[in-house]
Amino acid sequence: MRLLVISGPNLNLLGTREPEIYGSSSLKGIETLLQTKAKQENIELDCFQSNFEGALVDRIQQASGQVEGILINAGAYTHTSIAIRDALLGIQIPYVELHLSNTFAREPFRHNSFLADHALGIVSGFGVMSYTLAMEGLLAHLRQIN
Ligand code: DQA
Q1: Is the torsion defined by CA of 15, 9, 125, 63 positive or negative?
Q2: Is residue 68 a contact partner of residue 142, using CB atoms and an 8 Å limit?
């Protein structure tokens, strides 16, 4: 089993970016934690971050036939990107939308998600734990259907 973790714009700044909202872990730290978890679960994990919408679309397209599930924190593109939505729907791989912060407790423009209605589930507001919870949920789902 192989999963893909996709991180969108500005998540490369985690650790120093608005730590009161996003916490003090770096993206590298989060990815290392997920890799450790993946080893324990006996699965492969690919990680990808980009600040560019088109690069995220390309990476999602490349995942077709290569991974069983996707964890995606699309950052601000969650609230704006029909292109990322279309890419995810186009490859028909189950995905979980996740956010470090609780986007519904923040500005109104963060309440909309172009990804949510086709997601397997959404995890939002648990900081780094949003990633591990999302991974557990996705794995449980995939192991039931595989
Ligand atoms: C975020 C929430 C988004 O609204 C924001 O644009 C981000 C991070 C989160 O993980 O809480 O970049 O996706």
Answers
A1: negative
A2: yes
The model's pTM: 0.96
Give nearest CA residue, ligand 1 atom 12: 75
Q: Does the beta carbon of 132 lie inside 6 Å of ligand 1?
A: no
Say how far apart CA 121 and CA 107 lie, in whole Å: 22
What is the set of active-site residues?
22, 99
Q: Give percent helix, percent strand, percent coil of the chain, each to the nearest 5.
A: 50, 20, 30
Beta carbons of 100 and 23 less than 8 angstroms apart:
yes
Element (H, E) at 135: helix 128-145
For tokens 């872990």, the residue is: 25
**In angstroms, rounded to a whole number, what is the distance separating the alpha carbons of residues 8 and 126?**
18
Question: pLDDT tens digits, the chain, 146 residues: what are they?
Answer: 999 999 999 999 999 999 999 989 999 999 999 999 999 999 999 999 999 999 999 999 999 999 999 999 999 999 999 999 999 999 999 999 999 999 999 999 999 999 999 999 999 999 999 999 999 999 999 999 76
Question: Hey, is 51 helix, strand or coil?
Answer: coil
The amino acid that residue 80 corresponds to is: T
